[in-house]
Each structure stands twice: as C-alpha cells, then as structure tokens.
Amino acid sequence: MATFLYKLGRLAFRRRHFVALVWVALLTLAGVGAASAPPAGSTSFSIPGTEAQKAFDLLEQRYPGMSADGATARVVFKAPDGEKMTDKANKATVHKTVKELRSGSEVASVADPYAGHAVSKDGTIAYASVKYKVSGMELEDSAKDALKDSARDARDAGLAVEIGGDALTATPETGSSEVIGIAIAAVVLVITFGSLLAAGFPLLTAIIGVGIGVSTIAALASALDLGSTTSTLASMIGLAVGIDYALFIVSRYRAELAEGREREEAAGRAVGTAGSAVVFAGLTVVIALVGLSVVNIPMLTKMGVAAAGTVAIAVLIALTLIPALLGYAGRRIKPAGEKSKLLGGGRAPKKPGRPNMGTRWASFVVRRPVAVLLLGVIGLGAAAIPAASLELGLPDDGSQPVSTTQRRAYDLLSEGFGPGFNGPLMVVVDAKDSDHPKAAFTKVGDEIKGLKDVVTVTPATPNKSGDTATITVIPDSKPSSATTEDLVHAIRDKGADITSATDAKVLVTGSTAMNIDVSQKLNDALLPYLALVVGLAFLLLIVVFRSILVPLKAALGFLLSVMAALGAVVAVFQWGWLSGLMNVEETGPVMSMMPIFMVGVVFGLAMDYEVFLVTRMREAYVHGEKAGQAVVTGFRYGARVVTAAAVIMIAVFSGFIGSSESMVKMIGFGLAVAVFFDAFIVRMAIVPAVLALLGKRAWWLPKWLDRALPNVDVEGDGLRTDAERRNTDPDEEKALVRA
User: What is the 3-state secondary structure (H, E, C) of 545-597?
Assistant: First the structure.
C-alpha cells in the first residue's frame, strides 16, 4: 500500500498540470450536470415493512386519486377578542378564503370549517383543511404563495390566521454560523502550518471535493429521488473529512521536508505514509455511512451512500490533488517548524530544543496512565448518564420555533381542540375478505371508542366498492407523547382480535403512527447496525495495526464517546439544559434517527483520529522503539495535527447548530460534541493511557493470523532505504523521544 501510494504521490507531483486539469474538468462536468438537470421532483418517504406504510399503500390501491401522500395544510383562524368565528363578518371572510384556496390547480380538496364542524366549542377558533394532489416537496412555489396570500387577505380583514401542515415545507437554512465554522477552520490551519498558502490547500481541496459531490447529487436528484437533506449531510461530512485528510498529508509533507528530503521525494513519502492512513480512515467512514442501508429506510440509505461518495472523493483528492498543489507551491511551503515571513518566519525560536506540547502531554500520560484512564472514563461516564433517559420521536410542527406560522397554527389548534388534534390517527379497515364489511367497520369504531386517551372517533368512510374504510381517531395527548404511542399499540392490539372475529384487517397510519413506526424500526436496527459497522471496521483495523487489542480498545473508546455525546444531546434537547444558548425553543423527544446516525458518522470520524494517531505510534514501534517510547513519538508528530483536525471538524459541525431546522441543529450539536469527546478525551487521554499500560502486548498478534493477513505497510517500512535501516541508532532515537 505505502509503496503504491508513494509512487502515486510522486507521479501527481511531477504531472501536476494533468492532475489539476482532471479535477477542474470533473468539477466543471459536475457543475454543468447540476445546472442542466431537471429539478428534483417529489421526495418519497417510505418505510418498507411498517404497518403505517402498508396502510398508505392500501389507500393508494383502494382510493384512486386520493393522494394519500399528498401535502396537507390547515389554515387556522382565530376571532378577535370579544368576537366568535360564527359571527356574520368572520364567516364571510372564511368563506372567501376557502373559495380562494379551491382555485389552485394543485389543490385536491378544501374542507369548509362550518360544513365540517371544524369550529371550537367556544367558537373562537376554526380551521380549513386543504389537501393537495402532490407532496410538500413537489408542491409548486406558486401554490405555496397562493396559500400564504389567502391567509394574508384574511388577516387584513381582522382575523388572526396561521398555517400548519407540510405544504409549507422549506429547505432548512443554516445561517451565518456555517460560514463562521469555515472561518474558524481557516484560522486553525494558519496557526497549525504558520503559512497562509499551506493553510489554503486543505480548504481549497475540501471545497472542490464538496463541490463535485454536491453538484453530482443535484445532477442525479431527480433520477434517484434525492432530497435536500442528502446534500446537507454530504456537504457536512465531506467538508470536515476533506479538510482533515488534506491537513494530514500537508503536515507529513512538511515533516519530510524538515528531515532534509527533496520536495518530490517528500511528497511521495507523505502520500505513502499519511496517505495510507487517509485511505483506511476513509474506508471506515465509508463503511459506517454505507452501512446505514441495513436500516432499510430508503431516504436514510440514499443519504448515507451520497455522503460516502463525497468522502471517497475527498480521499482521492487528498492522494492526488494535494501533491500536485504542493508541486505548484514549490519552496513557498516551508518545512515543519518554519513559518512564512508574513507570519513571523525567520525569527529564532525562544527555547531551542524544547519538546512540543504533544511530547510533554504523552510523557505525562505514560507516567500516570492509571490516573488519566480513570479520570477519562469517569468523566465520559458522567456525561453519558442522561442517555439513560433517552426518549425518541420525530419532529412535528410543535418542535418548530415559535416565530414560525406552523408552530403558531399548532398552538392555536391545541388551544381550540386539544393537544391530540395535531396528531390524528387514521385507522384503515380492510374488509375485502370479510362477509359483513359494514358490521366490521362499525365494530372497529366501537372498540376504539372504548380505549383510553381517545377524544373523538369519526364514523367510517368507505370507498366506492365498500370493501375498505377509513376512521379518524383524535387522541387526548400530543403527537410526540408516550401516551399517544400507547394508544397506537392499543388500537393495533384490538385490531388483531377484530381480525380473528370478522376477517377484517385493521391498520393504523397517519403521520403520528408513521413517526412511531420509524422510531421503532430505527431502534430495532441499532444493534445489528452497530455490530456490522464495528465488526467490519474492527477487521479493517486489525489489518492496519496488525494487533488485536488496539482495534478492540478503539471500538470501546468509541462507545464511550458516543454514549457521552448522546447524554449531552438529551441534556440540551430533551431536558433543556443550555437550551437558550443553543436557541432551542422547544424541548422534547430526541429525533429517532439521532442514535443510529451518530453511531454511523461518529464511528467513522473517531476511527480517523485512531488511524492517524496510532499509525504514527505503530510506525515508531516497527522501526525499533519500545512501546512506551512509541506512544510519545506518535504524539510528538501527531498530536498537533490531530488537535487541529478535531478543532476544524468541531467548527464545521458547530456551524450547523445555527440551522432553522431542529433536526439539522441537533445533528450539528451531537456531532460536534461527539468529536470533542472522542478526540480530546478518548484519543488524546484514554488511548495513550491504555497503550502505556499494555506495553508491547498492545501490538500482539497470533502468528497464524500474522501470516494470514495481507501486509498493507501503513507505517511505510517499505519506503525506508537500506542506508536508513543500517543507520538507525536506538540510543539516538531514545534521546529524541526523551527530548
């Protein structure tokens, strides 16, 4: 591996014009494809195998033209103080609004509040239900504008009007904080390299990689049914790893220059050594992202595969475009330890020969491994305590900021009709195999009325053939509550008894039931996904490190950091700690996708730091150093750059905390906290402490397994010349380590 990448790095350095031209051509091609591709259509959200999805599919068959997955809107009206919605003037305003709403070409139906008994008992609040022929993502902007205009006209007439539902679904905005995150990354790179030019390379190549990845996603969005969140995740992950991978190779290049090597040779060795770590680190991220397909949620699978493709592009750019750019830079890239003149270069160091911070920290950990290990484990364990109270759910309009019309409509409906009105359940009765369909419909309604937490059960509405009916159930509790989830399970339990008595099948669906099914599906998939991803990465790391205990320690350390990060997410988004600082206006259940998503992404990123840091230790150990000395050497060369990489990744992820979308905000916070825990507590403290305690046992591998495993030579031993091997002086190396 190291020899091949060494040759690739030298080739890219020499043929830099050709390499640069290829990447510019790819970026241009992707950009043209994105610009000329048809706009993305409806982004289908299907959950194969769930009862809610089966009910949706049945409705599509038995109710042709119903558009079961079509967008919905609720235009909610509130009368001024002292008035009622039944007053003549207010009724006239509502009728006018309903007439305007019905004129839209994409509107399937509009229910008049007065004909459909959609007026609250006190008469102050009413709502009109709007059903569209297409989904919220496919709805034309003109239809959304017409919806907003009708509400504005009613407001001008004196009513308070708000709009809820998914018809106003919009692409989330990340705000200026994302730009701030990139700016922080730039500052960290300048401090790390002491050169504006060297700092610019990782940013430039990361932006090129993300540009190619996101443009390709946009070009294929219509054909592959990709949503806006797909490109958001790809840009988030691609930007973070793209900067990090380039950072490691540029850093190693400068270290090779400091050892006196020619620039082409230094580029080759940087790609051969640090590039090997980039390849395997990238593979762990790709495994984690592609592994999301085991959940069997198409949207999640597409997000994972698209992000994995962007990571693969970042790896290829780091291996080829970075050495090409280093060739262009020539002598303007200084060896490690030197700064450019603009940033204070040429000055004599204040304390020549003083060991760097990484060396001093590693030496301390090696001397006090038990204390550092206990402190790290106890600290992460304490942070993980809130995770025991984790409650999962999917966000609805109730989790929107109070400044949005969706949230205000949600609150008005809760005020006028009760909290459960925002999460109605649709019960579908399939009586095709029943001898008495009407009797089955009646029995289902009567059984549901006898259940707890039920406020309203509407009469069954059969289809034209009379073999299927829908019943709407209004719970007494809000959609995201555990009580509503219990009601869904209770209806399904009753449905099993009804099926045995009448041969009619009872299915519960609707957005609330769909959210419950999605949460359950994600919970059920978490352990198999964890076993698959950690298992494959464990085997990969055995090949990289030629050790059993080092990969095992890496996996256990990851579990500590991800549990601590989940605890932090629960504390902020569920308990409300520091919610004001994070601009979290509404606390509630943690998004169902968060645990499995965090496991996938954080595992891949955690293994990045493990590979980059420990391969340096492995390299020193293979080249003759003792186990404890190798730990210090690994930190001497790798701690600074791993620290910079972690700070950059935290800055990039933190940029998404400013998003207007609660899901993106939660993901950004969770990933930023997880990277902090994993990089600075697990990899920087627990890892060296464990390796110091294990000593040479850390690198133990059974002889039969050693013979069976391929030799990928990540440590670059194959690149050492005979003279270098002969001239290695163990005493000299020990002195360097002690320094």
Answer: HCCCHHHHHHHHHHHHHHHHHHHHHHHHHHCCCCCCCCCCCCCCCEECCHHHH
- With bands split at pLDDT 50, 70 and 90, how would you rate the model's confidence at 527? confident
Of 228-237, 606-615, 688-697, 722-731, least confident by mean pLDDT is: 722-731
Query: How many angstroms separate the CA atoms of 606 and 609, rounded?
Result: 5
Average pLDDT over every residue of 602-611: 78
* Mean pLDDT for the stretch of residues 17-39: 89
Query: For the chain, what is the largest distance between any 2 Cα atoms, rounded to a whole number of angstroms?
Result: 100
Distance CA 58, CA 428 (A): 8
> What is the DSSP secondary-structure string of 681-705?
IIIIIIHHHHHHHHGGGGG---HHH
The reported pLDDT for the residue numbered 89 is: 92
Quote the DSSP letter at residue 499: H
The whole-chain average pLDDT of the chain stands at 82
pLDDT surpasses 50 at 524: yes
CA 402/CA 397 separation, integer angstroms: 10
Structure tokens at 286: 């790709």
Kindly give the residue spans of alpha helices, DSSP state H, lying in 15-114.
Answer: 16-36, 51-62, 88-102
Q: Hunting for tokens 């303007």 — which residue is that?
A: 332
Report how far residue 731's alpha carbon sits from residue 392's, in angstroms, rounded to the nearest whole number.
57
Predicted local confidence at residue 258, as pLDDT: 87
245 near 276, Cβ under 8 Å?
A: no
Q: Which two tokens stand for residue 493?
A: 């339990």
- Letter for the amino acid at 240? A
Backbone angles phi, psi at 119, to 5 degrees: -120, 135
Is 678 a residue whose pLDDT tops 50?
A: yes
Residue that the structure tokens 């091609």 belong to: 29
In whole angstroms, what is the distance from residue 370 CA to residue 686 CA?
9
Distance in angstroms (rounded) separating the CA atoms of residues 179 and 239: 12
**Which ranges in 385-481 belong to alpha helices (H)?**
405-417, 437-449
Give residue 320's pLDDT: 95
Burial class (CB in 10 A: 0-12, 13-18, 19+), 175: middle
Q: How far is CA 385 from CA 563, 565, 570, 657, 666, in A?
A: 9, 10, 10, 23, 19
Angle at 324 between CA 321 and CA 330, to 5 degrees: 140
- The residues facing 1 across adjacent strands are none
CA 491 vs CA 436, 536, 672, 673: distances in Å? 21, 41, 41, 40
**% of the chain with per-residue pLDDT over 70:** 89
Rounded to 5 degrees, what are φ and ψ at 417?
-125, 0
How far apart CA 4 and CA 19 sit, in angstroms, is: 17
3-state secondary structure 293-331: HHHCCHHHHHHHHHHHHHHHHHHHHHHHHHHHHHHHHHH
| Residues 271/5, Cβ–Cβ less than 8 Å | yes
Of 332, 328, 319, nearest to 14 (Cα)? Answer: 328
Nearest to 469 by CA among 41, 146, 59: 59
Can you tell me the distance from the alpha carbon of 46 to that of 53, in angstroms, rounded to the nearest whole number?
7
HEC profile of 162-182: EEECHHHCCCCCCCCHHHHHH
How many Å apart are CA 261 and CA 264, to the nearest integer? Answer: 8
Can you say how many angstroms the Cα of residue 50 is from the centroid of all Cα atoms in its chain? 23
d(CA 469, CA 158): 40
> What is the C-alpha to C-alpha distance for residues 271 and 264, in angstroms, rounded to an integer?
11
Distance, in Å, from the CA atom of 647 to the CA atom of 155, rounded to the nearest integer, reads 48
Residue 113 CA from chain centroid, whole number: 41
Please name every residue paired with 128 in a beta bridge, in sequence order, or none if there are none.
75
Residue count of the chain: 739
Q: What is the pLDDT of residues 161-218, one digit of tens each?
A: 999 887 776 555 545 555 776 777 788 888 877 777 778 888 889 889 989 988 888 8
Phi, psi dihedrals of residue 137, rounded to the nearest 5°: -70, -25
